[in-house]
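Annotated sample (chain length 326).
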Amino acid sequence: MIIINDNPTINQRYIPHDINTRLYAVIAYQNGWKAAVVCRKYHISKASLSRWIKRYNGTKESLADKSHKPLTPHPNAHTQQEIIWIDNYLRRNKNITLCELWYKLKIDKGYTRHPASLYRFLRKSGLYKQINTDTKKSYIPKPYDTPTELGVKWQMDVKYVPGECRAKTISRTSNFFQYTCIDEASRERYIYHYTEQIPANTVDFVKRCIRYFGYKPKEIQTDNGIEFTYFKATVKVIHPLDQLCMELNIYHHRIRPRTPRHNGKVERSHRNDNERFYKTLTFYSLEDLRYQAAHYLKRSNNIPMAVLNYKTPKEQRQLLLKYKLI
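Output written by the structure step:
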């Protein structure tokens, strides 16, 4: 009788032998059968038969597959001391990011490995949760000319502070907004919180940004929200932000409507804020929110970024200042 395999996924060139086949082949050889006859009968190689004979000690379990894990660690594997460092940081900082963990190890412990090595170690150890991805075709961005000098372009946007972060003593009708400004060259950010999303707060925020960075930009890029611009077809009055930009000789660049990816750097930073700040935040007043945000701003500007070749925004700023002086 000929058996036809209906499953094309099985590799017909190699079918693993089960433990009974191994046992019968070894017993047949020990009973006086020639090795060639045993190999033909059970469709095995002489090398496999020889290996099974050496391993057989009278029990079927001795012929079972053994672990292929190396008996000694790789010479370049993480040392026990490095593993202790990593465990200590993860135990004390449950919400720490990969780049932040790598940078703390580098600065505090003299850790010399690449961030990718740390990532692989965390994945194999089960300490890094992989993000599920779908099969949706990803958007392929067009080439973008990122400035290489400080003060060429700022990206600015407003983020709504999640209501879950408010303490129970704060009214449910109270809203809070985070104004964010990022320098494209250094990725350094400045954030400040308000209770209203209005043009007057935008003007105040721009002035605070100039004081924080120590320079004014040549261009400010925003979306088309009412806090940044008026719809010129219906409102003929000049917007306060446009008035300030004309006084300071700053070009106000408005992105295409309903295209937030054109303001991608500041939008991406808002996603980081959700993961690093708002995920564990509880505030009791606007002053408390601004106080905690100031501490978070200092932390976020000292986290290395892959796009900066694993330098922090503060380090990138100092590097660009050094090149400018040269």
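Annotation: The longest helix spans residues 199-213.
Annotation: The first strand starts at residue 153 and ends at 160.
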